[in-house]
Amino acid sequence: MTLAPQLSHFGIFVQDVEAMTRFYTHVFDLRLTDRGVGRNFKVPLHFLSGSADQHHQLVLAGGRAPDSPSTVMQLSFKVPAIDDLRRVRARALAEGASQMRGMNHGNALSIYFSDLEGNTIEVYLDTPWYVPQPHGDPLDLDRSDAEIWAETEALCRADPGFMPVADWQARFTSAH
Length: 176
Known about the structure:
Radius of gyration: 18 Å
Order of helices and strands: EHEEEEHEEEEEHEH
């Protein structure tokens, strides 16, 4: 059996590669692994990673025209705990992020915000439940973890498409 290609990294064009590199290294603890001017893309390229087994997870490419709108629907980063959402929220706001909002998708708890150049960023953690998407309720990270988890489980169980995520995964696997 052959495996489908797996998404491993992404690149975006930016207006100010230095400012965007500072933003992503400070907010997400990514490290600059390499930099230079591309041979095929004649623009400055900064390669960033948060993992020793991946040379780069994000490439920032200079050359985006000033005042050009972002074409990024969202860039998503996964974290393991609600406190990590809170930590990233604080860091992102301190680094100049805007439009911060929390969203409870049932299957994930997320924050969304705009980076310095208007790209939408999602930071999320998975829950043990599945509900059909799109699904979005407000998420208040100022509440306790216990309150957030209890509310999320109740919202999920009230959805007619609810199932434990393990059941959804089994269905996904058996469909191939």
